[in-house]
Amino acid sequence: MLWTAPIWSLLTGGVLGHNQHVFTLASTGADASPIIPGANLATAANLSAVNADAYSLLMHPSFPGHRMRIKKSAFCDPTVNAYTGYLDVDYGAKHMFFYFFESRRDPTKDDVMMWINGGPGCSSASGLLMELGPCSLDLEEISSNGTVWNPYSWNTEANVFFLDQPVGVGFSYADYEETVETTEGAAKNVHAFISLFFDTFPEFVGRRLHLSGESYAGRYLPAFASYIVDQNELAVAQGRRPANLTSVIIGNGITDISTLYPGRYEVECGTAALEVPFQKISTCVRMKIALPRCQDAIKRNCVEQLDMMNCDAAFSFCDAELSTAYWESGRNVYDISTTCEENVMCSKKNTLIKEYLDRPDIRQLLGVDPLFNFTVCSHDVGLGFHSHSDMRRVPSQHHVAALLERSIRVLIYAGTYDWQCNWVANKLWVDNLDWTGKAAYAVAEWHDWHVDGKKAGETKSAGLLRFVTVRGAGHMVPHDKPAESQAMVSRWLAHQEL
């Protein structure tokens, strides 16, 4: 999910004691090891040995500043083993919360997938309880535990993590108000989390790993995956097994900022989303006139060289001329076919998710620190990333090209009803992507793809790159089109054609 803030132009997923985040040193000096009350200490384990009564504390000598606390949980999906916990980073100063669900098919053989939501600053619990998780929030109050079974969960055939990152998001927190305010900074913690998991649990060593997410994940995931690839080389040199990163899956992402406004124009004033444009002709004419100046300003001040002051001015002009009319229309920026609800990220469900996860019984079930309330989307985290011009600092499409050159598969999908990170903008940057398969992709043909005999969208591919549209879906494709999104991911994991 992406953060909508017109004034920023930012784009936007057994309880220990109340002092569980306080560490007591077993010895003095730089090499002292932190001990967490109520935690079982282990340097290696089998995941099935983790229990539900207390956290198991896991560590690895390659990551001396990181510890993982993990416990078994009965949360969400009773048909599989589920786990929750924290990655404690920077010697216990920061704590990143995660949910992990084993595959419904064959957890001993199936791939591993990580899902993150965007923002920057939104919790992956939204993806878990609204989109692709094994359970969904019970809106009709028909269940005894507040959730209902999701038959289209992505853990149907993959072991799936939902990670709240960076700190300050979801149940993740910092002890001393430390923050992570850049994607590159966040990448280090994500890499440590993934490495510690695979290095600690031998049953998952060598499994294929897929990084997936939506919205600001279009900035996050290319950088995260690139950092993992680079660190894999270091791991090999040190005699450690590298993470078997196999693919990156980005839904309605923000990746190349230069294509954003041309795409929005086509959604509002063309037929890219609706058969008849909904915007007034006078507004469309004004937008058409302003669009070349907008694109030129972004190219000169944000892309060719980053001049933060002039880049901010460029986006301010583009928003004033090309976004104001949409914001004033009352339409949902994440789904042009609906109006915006006065709730978090235009969705009442996000407010209900917070209420559900802040329930004492659910917090106890998850094992979260009772001192910290759940945060759906953190305003402070979003401001921190914006203060560093994180979205504009690095053209993330270059990371995507570099990943393809290193044999990492990339799936870009987009719902056609999204305005915020629309499918046209994504199509434009994928068409322009500078990689060795560019010519092959240019001549490849579009074709329809189907689920249960019905057209789901269009797709195009060349080599390791595939682009997919999902017709009638908004920003959160797994929420709007669950069967289609699950089929798409299933075929992707199996290396099947759509």
Automatic annotation (TrEMBL):
Its EC number is 3.4.16.-. It comes from the Eukaryota. Residues 1-17 form the signal peptide. One of its GO terms (biological process) is proteolysis. GO terms for molecular function: serine-type carboxypeptidase activity. PROSITE patterns: CARBOXYPEPT_SER_HIS, CARBOXYPEPT_SER_SER. GO terms for cellular component: fungal-type vacuole. Keywords: Carboxypeptidase, Glycoprotein, Hydrolase, Protease, Signal. It is an enzyme of class 3 (hydrolase). It holds the Pfam family Peptidase_S10. Gene3D superfamilies: 1.10.287.410, alpha/beta hydrolase (3.40.50.1820). Belongs to the peptidase S10 family. This is Carboxypeptidase. The lineage of its organism: Eukaryota, Fungi, Dikarya, Basidiomycota, Agaricomycotina.
